[in-house]
Recover the amino acids of this structure.
């Protein structure tokens, strides 16, 4: 049972055939099923994670990490405390947060919280634009058991044929390009867009446009930190985990709070 | 015990205080220690993963996923089979492998294999250059319980003060730049460089130079796929998991094999 839990927790989202356990332990499938039921019970008693079993030829067992409301609250409070550190304030009122995003433990926690918010939307791929969104998008995809796709700022020969769009980046009002390989994003894909930061929402909007250009469907937009202003973003609906209210460069103070409700217009 | 394994497997590399388990289960630390011993035994009997306990104020328990030689062999064979698929051949003899790198399950497996190869070198940070190395570097860092740092091609205000070097990129002989934030990489860091692909080794060499410019130390270079030719790379020593021997565009054939020994000059 310990090894069973290890396999499930290490491969969240993946459907592992019962056959795999049966071979590994040289046990009957019925014994494995009983053990799985106990694992499921233990997990659900702790309120952390969900075990789903699927029957049939492609059947097996799948583990989805679902942080409890208490875990979500604690994690977001810890992240807010870290973000309030005055040493994070950079010239221009920017906040240094790359260390949090690129830390595997924090990015995994953020990814699991985002994943839990979007299970109901049933995405089959997570899309982000290079570069800083990648760790969070990868960890969100991991917690949902689906692939991640990186849009790039320039096409590359190693991505094969691609679709490119132009969009107006919010702050500089500059025309930027965004491209994604046709091999990476199928036309019937259900896409969850994930990014680390949103101010006006121009980048997220660019990704929404890129997805529609391909004929695929956006089923959600998940953001780690979104600014309170401008209140009206260039995407209609998004979920953010933390709201950045204000950065006072002179007083060296950053105002952030967990964003507990969805942002809908 | 099931929940214990879940916590450990979900947070590889992280040192989790015994106190955390004691509070969670409302049990004495001695009971927790006994249960941990059983978890350790079960894991080691399966030959997969290592549980380390640390005593003292900062003490606790740490889980390191260590794939068995059998698991490593199977994973690398599966990856080679995928890479041989003729539909991956792109114009110019490039191989499409972005889907593998950005798949959380595959990137986690590759990261665990790389991590296991470098535990002895005791790195305290994993460095990569944007963009395609990021998923593998993040998963390697995760399996070692250390942070990941992304070097960028251009400096950004959100990274704070940075160090920039120029290097000659291998194929195009063009002068490129590479930059890393001073906040991200400390002068006393022990750096493991990870990248998805190596041909001449110019990018890896650029990262080695960037690290020395900062006064930090490179303790290893880990690459997912390295080409057989040129045999002489621009870094002296590296570990690659798969060797790309030849791509025959006309015959639509790709020759790859697991690289089981280290590449030293």
């Amino acid at each position: 049972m310990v090894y069973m839990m290890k396999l499930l927790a290490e491969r969240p989202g993946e459907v592992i055939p019962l056959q795999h356990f049966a071979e590994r332990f040289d046990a009957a499938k019925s014994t494995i099923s009983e053990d799985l039921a106990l694992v499921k019970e233990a997990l659900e008693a702790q309120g952390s994670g969900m075990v789903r079993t699927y029957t049939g030829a492609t059947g097996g067992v799948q583990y989805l990490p679902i942080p409890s409301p208490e875990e979500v609250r604690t994690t977001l409070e810890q992240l807010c405390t870290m973000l309030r550190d005055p040493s994070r304030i950079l010239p221009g009122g920017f906040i240094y947060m790359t260390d949090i995003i690129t830390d595997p433990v924090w990015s995994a926690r953020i990814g699991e919280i985002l994943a839990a918010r979007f299970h109901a939307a049933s995405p089959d791929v997570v899309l982000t634009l290079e570069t800083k969104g990648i760790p969070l998008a990868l960890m969100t995809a991991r917690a949902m058991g689906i692939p991640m796709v990186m849009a790039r700022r320039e096409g590359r020969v190693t991505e094969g044929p691609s679709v490119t769009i132009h969009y107006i980046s919010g702050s500089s009002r500059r025309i930027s390009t965004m491209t994604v390989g046709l091999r990476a994003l199928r036309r019937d894909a259900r896409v969850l867009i994930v990014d680390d930061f949103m101010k006006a929402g121009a980048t997220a909007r660019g990704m929404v446009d890129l997805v529609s250009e391909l004929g695929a469907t956006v089923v959600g937009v998940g953001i780690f930190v979104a600014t309170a202003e401008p209140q009206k973003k260039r995407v209609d609906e998004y979920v953010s985990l933390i709201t950045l209210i204000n950065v006072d460069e002179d007083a060296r103070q950053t105002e952030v709070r967990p964003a507990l409700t969805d942002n809908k217009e």
Summary: Chain B touches chain A through 58 residues (CB under 8 Å). DSSP finds eight helices and 13 strands in chain B. Chain B has a mean pLDDT of 91.
